[in-house]
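Long-time lurker, first post. I've been practising inverse folding by hand and with some scripts of my own, and I keep getting stuck on stretches where the structure tokens seem ambiguous. Below is the full token string for one chain I'm working on. Before anyone asks, I'm not after the true native sequence, just a reasonable design that respects the backbone. If someone could post their per-position residues I'd love to compare against what I wrote down in my notebook.
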């Protein structure tokens, strides 16, 4: 069975940077589970505890069972998080383009001195015979 994004993690944590950061992702992961043939969407919420708005540039990636990158996960290109507020971006997975297996990747949000990673995963099991 595939590894769910909740079990993957989002990489190493720079504790000093994380505790000083004003922007953060409040969505822990994007677990698309077993997507169907229609595009599936998930929301990522970002929060900003600072006194100025923060514009985050978003990129997404997903790798197939063979480790090769696939162009099946997309996100809004940017999201602006207001001062002392939250904003939401949408990630879309095109499940019809996937074969059987485990898919892992994530959405990375970047701004000056900010890098936030939200892991993503999907798993398509082969039908059981008989």
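-- Answer (accepted) --
I ran through it position by position. Result:
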């Amino acid at each position: 069975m595939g590894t769910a994004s909740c079990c993957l993690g989002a990489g190493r944590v720079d504790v000093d940077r994380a505790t000083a950061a004003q922007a953060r992702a409040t969505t822990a992961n994007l677990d698309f589970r077993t997507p169907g043939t229609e595009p599936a969407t998930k929301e990522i919420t970002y929060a900003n505890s600072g006194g100025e708005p923060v514009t985050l540039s978003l990129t997404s990636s997903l790798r197939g069972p063979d480790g090769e990158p696939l162009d099946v996960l997309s996100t809004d290109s940017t999201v602006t998080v207001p001062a002392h507020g939250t904003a939401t971006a949408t990630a879309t997975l095109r499940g019809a383009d996937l074969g059987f297996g485990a898919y892992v990747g994530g959405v990375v949000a970047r701004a000056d001195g900010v890098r936030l990673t939200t892991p993503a995963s999907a798993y398509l099991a082969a039908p059981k015979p008989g």
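A couple of notes from the structure itself: Residues 62 and 71 are 7 Å apart (CA to CA). The chain has a mean pLDDT of 86. Happy to go over any region you disagree with.
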